[in-house]
Design a protein that fits this description.
By secondary structure, the chain is α/β, with parallel strands linked by helices. It is built from seven helices and 13 strands.
Length: 255
């Protein structure tokens, strides 16, 4: 990965969600044009002169293929699945999560984009490991449908780099927390804080000794931007986290 000038255009798929909104809020004029593709427009959009929102189902690649211009950095954030839901939606995850991403990647290769940045999972793809912290060289051993889906996408993207030369950056992001989160779905800290605010019960599986790497959304947004500013030449994998684990029990006590 070599330092380079900013991309001619940023394209964020699923950019109206938690990660996308925070990335947009941290963007600057020098980042250039940013196009946000999302099935639903945000309720509280980040309004900047350089940001354009387009209501578009990301799976319908032919409808926006012309936007995937040479020099663009495509950040693929769109996902309809999360760990607690994936076991119940394996077939739709295969069609949407894997099939939809492969179609997007093929279009990116056709159009000659500068890079495709895929947001994977910093925990689910690795499964149970005996070494901590886990490096990018560790063999992935997913033990959940969500992890299997994410790793499958990664494998197809590496193949497309090998066959088509598509520059790929895979970001295996830790457990992200921060503002503009719905308080539902994935993200233990945000979900638990939301339940606390509503005086609802918090369900904890196990004895609370599970250790995770909890990552600030500001750091996650910074990582996406830093990778997007580079000239990606291969199919590169980056763990994005603090490098420090915190047990669920300790996190709950602090909250």
């Amino acid at each position: 990965m070599q330092p380079a000038c900013p991309p001619t255009r940023w394209i964020l798929t699923g950019g109206a969600g938690f990660l996308g909104t925070n990335f947009l809020a941290s963007s600057r004029p020098e980042d250039g044009e940013i196009i946000v593709l999302s099935r639903k427009l945000p309720r509280w959009p980040v309004v900047r002169p350089w940001i354009t929102y387009i209501e578009q189902d990301v799976r319908e690649v032919d409808a926006y293929r012309y936007m995937l211009t040479h020099g663009s950095a495509v950040v693929h954030l769109a996902s309809s699945s999360y760990p607690g839901k994936a076991e119940k939606s394996i077939e739709s995850d295969i069609q949407d999560g894997i099939g939809g991403t492969v179609r997007l990647a093929q279009a990116c290769a056709d159009q000659g984009v500068r890079s495709l940045i895929y947001l994977s999972s910093g925990g689910a793809v690795y499964g149970d490991q005996t070494i901590s912290p886990i490096s990018e060289d560790a063999t992935p051993k997913p033990i959940s449908a969500y992890g299997a889906m994410k790793l499958s996408v990664e494998t197809y993207l590496r193949m497309l780099h090998h066959v088509r030369g598509l520059p790929i950056a895979i970001l295996r992001v830790g457990n992200v927390f921060g503002k503009w989160h719905s308080g539902t779905g994935q993200g233990a800290i945000n979900v638990f804080l939301s339940r606390m605010a509503r005086h609802e019960q918090i369900d904890v599986w196990g004895d609370g000794s599970q250790v995770r790497d909890y990552l600030s959304i500001d750091d996650a947004s910074r990582a996406i931007r830093l990778v997007g500013l580079q000239e990606i030449r291969g199919a590169e994998v980056f763990n994005v986290g603090t490098g420090k684990g915190t047990s669920l029990k300790t996190m709950l006590e602090k909250m």
